[in-house]
Structure formats: C-alpha cells, structure tokens
Design goal:
36% of the residues lie in helices and 19% in strands. The protein is an alpha/beta fold. Its main location: other.
C-alpha cells in the first residue's frame, strides 16, 4: 500500500536559500561526526550514511539536516563513504549491528546493492529513509522501493537527465552537426547511468546531436577542468558541454584558455548558485540547468525521519524539486527567480 506522501513546501516565488553555515559538530565514538549529546527516550539517535561528505550537493543537504536535528533534539551522526559503495554497505551494516540508533538516512551510491542492508535495518527495528538517490532498481520514481521504508526524498535522476537533454536540444538548435561533450559525475554509478538514460531519451529525435566525447568529472571542478581540457584537445570545435554544475563551472577556465568561453554552449545539472548567476546574466554560453534542491531535501528527510521515529509515520515519496512551479528546468527566462541551494 502506498504510504502517505509528504510534500515539502516551496514558495510561490521559488526563492531558494543559498547554503548557510553548518551546525557545530564533534566526534562520535564510532567514527562519525555527531551533532548533539547523549540520547534519551525523547532524544532519538539517527545515523546518516552519506555517499560523500566532499560532494557540494550532499554537504548542503547535511547542513540542513543538522539544523533541523539541533532544533528538534535529535542526535545526528554522519558516516562518509567517500564515493565507495562497498564502504557504504559496510557502514550501514555497522549502524545496524551497533544497536545505537533509532533510524538511518542513507544517501546511496549503489541503491540496488544496498537493498539487503536496508532490509536488515528494517528487520532490526530501525526506521529507514533515503536521500538524494533511490534505494532499489528504479531511478525514475520518487516512491520508496523497499517494503517497510519510511520515506524516500529524491528528484528522480532520469527526470533530471531528461531536462538536461531538453536544454541540449535548445543549445543545438540550428547547429548541424552539433558536437556534444558529455560529462558524467561517475559513469560507473547508477546516478550517472540514469542521467544519461533520461538525456538520451530527450535528444533521440534530434539527429543533429552527436556525442563526440565522454568523461568522468567526479562531480567537482577539478575533474571537470581536466576532462574538458581533453575534450578540447581532441575536438577543438566542440559545440556543447553537458554535465553536473560543479564540473561544468570548473571547466570554464579550460574553455577560456582555448578561446572558446562563450562560444561553447553550457548545460548543467544541479542548480548551483554559480551556474544560476551566469544563466540569469546570459554569460559564458550558459543555456540552463536542471535544478535539484539539496537543502530542501535535507530538511524534508530529517523531518520525515523525526515523524517516523516519534510517531511511526511513513511519509512515502518526497520530491521538493517536483513542487517548483513551472518545473525544475532553469533557463535565462526564469533564472532570476532562483537562488541556488549549494554554492559551486
């Protein structure tokens, strides 16, 4: 039976807060960073098993989780998988085996591979929710996919990929052939494959679009810079770069050095403050970006976990980006209404 859906409120003006300062944290005995102090019956303990603390999107989500946990008297302990799926699975097992937690929020790397660990956590009596990516095999839905999960907070990556594809079609309008360089965060991860699936579906009726180069930008600026330097060396006439906002923003110095900044069209994914600012100003070839709302997602995840632990409530699928009036595809026409929820 489908759990009751909890929607995160989004203002009609779509004013999205820029990342703020994190709540102070210390060291927990089990190696994570923890916000709060000793647990009581009124002070639930929640573990956050994070894909990577170095990722700008997940940093923003965690900061908002900390803020809500502090305000609501929840002890929140974070574990950093460092983009290692095997390490993340082991961390989830450790959380369950410790017997110290009332609930666990997982930002998964390999959502399908984590299903046995999530089932074990539920069987052990923990409330379980996901953040940012799906736990299960489907990457085109917001709904929880494991029986007994309390919630899933996600903007489906297939949807984001489709929006990035639609923006690419616009960038390639009247350009034939249109040479595209595709930046994955990580092609090996289900997220990268889902984004590409959505992108491929959106451009399949545009025969002028040709992907001439691919590479992993590792979701960060340095990765994007290196990969796009390679793109330009092999394909100096490339027309469009597509990828996660931090990698595309990071690649701009390479384009500048090659005399191509502003001539190559840029399409992003994420909705970073740096990308939105340039899109709104019509600068440096930016066409648009597919928006996600990490702070809103972090807030929704912690609120849903508190409801699960304290009241036994299952909140179901939650997609703050899906509540944006007019959709989550940002262009120059609507960019002035937005402020990014993560900086880079």
């Amino acid at each position: 039976m489908r759990a009751q859906r909890m929607r995160a409120a989004v203002a009609a003006t779509v004013a999205i807060a820029v990342a703020g300062s994190a709540v102070g944290c210390g060291s927990s005995e089990d190696g994570g960073s923890t916000a709060g102090s000793a647990t009581t019956a009124e002070r639930p303990r929640v573990a956050f098993v994070n894909a990577s603390m170095a990722n700008a999107v997940l940093q923003a989500a965690y900061q908002e989780m900390q803020r809500v946990a502090e305000a609501e008297g929840v002890e929140l302990t974070a574990f950093d998988a460092g983009f290692d799926p095997a390490k993340q699975f082991a961390q989830l097992q450790d959380v369950v085996a410790s017997g110290q937690y009332d609930g666990v929020i997982v930002a998964p790397l390999d959502g399908n591979g984590l299903v046995p660990g999530v089932e074990a956590a539920i069987d052990a009596g923990l409330k379980v929710g996901s953040l940012n990516q799906a736990i299960g095999s489907r990457l085109d839905t917001t709904e929880p996919q494991v029986d007994g999960m309390s919630f899933a907070v996600i903007h489906p990556p297939v949807t984001s990929g489709r929006d990035m594809g639609r923006l690419t079609v616009e960038a390639c309008r009247d350009v034939d052939p249109c040479e595209v360089g595709f930046l994955y965060g990580s092609k090996a991860l289900p997220l990268g494959q889902a984004l590409r699936q959505g992108w491929d579906g959106a451009v399949e009726d545009s025969p002028n679009i040709e992907v001439v180069a691919e590479g992993d930008g590792n979701f960060d600026a340095q990765g994007g810079l290196k990969v796009v330097q390679d793109f330009l060396q092999a394909h100096p006439g490339i027309d469009v770069i597509v990828g996660p906002d931090p990698s595309v923003v990071g690649a701009q110095p390479a384009l500048s050095d090659a005399g191509r900044l502003g001539k190559v069209k840029l399409v992003g994914g994420g909705g970073s403050a740096a990308a939105i600012r340039q899109i709104a100003a019509g600068e440096n070839g930016w066409v648009g970006t597919a928006v996600v709302l990490p702070r809103s997602e972090g807030r929704a995840a912690m609120e849903a976990m508190i409801a699960a632990v304290r009241d036994g409530k299952a909140s179901g699928g939650i997609d703050p980006s899906g509540e944006i009036p007019g959709g989550a595809m940002l262009t120059r026409e609507n960019a002035a209404r937005f402020r990014g929820e993560f900086p880079s």
